[in-house]
Design brief:
mainly alpha, 3-stranded antiparallel β-sheet, 3 strands, 8% strand, globular
Length: 121
């Protein structure tokens, strides 16, 4: 890998970027040690897309907000293979951080990004 020629940040230059927020609990919490860092980043990307879902009023009949995030778009956003995205989605689904609802052939899944801070009994 070739080192790129970079410069320092000056003043408020760091504010020029959009950031993906990943809840600290996902990184340091014992409950999430089985989840890969890649999957945690994808979860952060999904949380970021929740603002778009809110603006577009993507809600189901129970008023649950969902996102539309096609696998191909995820793959492009994270610069990984479809197989890798599928594995990350499986991780997030298995631990309960997301729930995917298939809408049929040719349609992207409806993805419910779960709030792990709001536990259900």
């Amino acid at each position: 890998m070739e080192k790129i020629n970079t410069n320092y940040f000056y003043g408020y230059e760091a504010e020029q970027f959009d950031f993906i927020e990943i809840p600290k609990e996902l990184v340091v919490g014992d409950e999430f040690t089985s989840v890969s860092m890649d999957a945690k980043i994808l979860y952060g990307m999904m949380v970021d897309r929740m603002s778009l879902a809110t603006k577009n009023l993507w809600r189901d009949e129970d008023d649950h907000v969902y996102i539309i995030y096609p696998v191909e778009t995820m793959r492009e956003d994270m610069n990984v293979s479809k197989k890798k995205i599928t594995a990350m989605l499986k991780e997030l689904d298995q631990i309960g951080l997301i729930e995917r609802v298939r809408l049929g052939r040719g349609f992207p899944d409806r993805i419910y990004v779960k709030n792990f801070n709001a536990r259900v009994n």
